[in-house]
Amino acid sequence: MIWYGLLVAAVAAERVAELVVARRNERWSTARGATVAGQGHYPVMVALHTGLLAGCVAEVALAWRPFVPALAWPMLAVLVGAQALRWWCVRSLGPRWNTRVIVVPGLPLVARGPYRWRWLRHPNYVAVVAEGVALPLVHTAWVTAVVFSVLNAALLTVRIRCENRALAAATAPAVTVPA
C-alpha cells in the first residue's frame, strides 16, 4: 500500500506542476487579450480530480483492495502512457495550454503534435480518461474508477462543448506548424 500511496502522491505532484504551468500560461494569454470561458465548471473539475486522488487511496485502505499484478502492471503502463500524452499536449500547445478554457483571439488552432490529427480534437482529454481508469485500477480501486469515469464523462461533455464554442469564436483557421 505504501508504494501505491507514493504513486498517487506522484500524480498529485504532477497536478501541481500542471497548475504552475497553467498559471504561467494564463499570464501569457492574458497579456495577449485572452478570454476565459467556462468558469462555472472549473471548480467542479478541480473537486473531481482531487476526489480521484483521495478516492484511490481511501478505497484501497478502507475496502482492503488487493494488489493484482495481472491488472496492476498493464494499468501502470496505461497511466504512464496517459502522462506522456498529457505532457505531449502541454508541449504542443506551448503557452496556449491551460487547465482553464482560455483562448487568445485571432490565433489559429494548433495543428502539431497530437493536435495534427483532426479526428482527435481533444487528445488531452484522452489522457484524462485513461488516467481516471488506470490510476485506481493499479490497486483494484474499481469503485473509484467507475465513479470518476461516470462523473468525468458528464464533466467532459460540458467542458468540450465550452471549449469548442470558445475556440470557434476566437480562432483563425488552422495552420500546420512543424513540431
- Cα(first) to Cα(last) distance is 40 Å
The succession of helices and strands, N to C, reads HEHHEEHHE
Helix content: 55-70%
Instruction: Give the strand order, joined by hyphens, for the main sheet.
Output: 1-2
Spans where pLDDT lies below 50 across 5 or more residues? none
**What Rg do the Cα atoms give?**
17 Å
Shape: elongated
Multimeric status of the protein: single chain
Structural classification:
mainly alpha
Question: How many individual β-strands?
Answer: 4
Report the β-strand fraction as a percent range: 5-15%
How much is the average pLDDT? 94
The biggest sheet, with number of strands, parallel, antiparallel or mixed sense and barrel status, is: 2 strands, antiparallel
Q: Can you characterise this structure?
A:
The chain has 179 residues and is mostly helical. It has helices at 2-31, 42-62, 69-93, 123-137, 142-170, and strands at residues 35-37, 101-103, 108-110, 172-175. Strands 1-2 form a two-stranded antiparallel ribbon. Strands 3-4 form a two-stranded parallel ribbon. α1 (2-31) runs antiparallel to α2, α2 runs antiparallel to α5 and α3 runs antiparallel to α4. The longest helix is centred in the first third of the chain and has 30 residues, at 2-31. The protein is elongated and about 50 Å long. The mean pLDDT is 94.
Helix and strand layout, with pairings?
Layout: H1 2-31, E1 35-37, H2 42-62, H3 69-93, E2 101-103, E3 108-110, H4 123-137, H5 142-170, E4 172-175
Parallel strand pairs: 3-4
Antiparallel strand pairs: 1-2
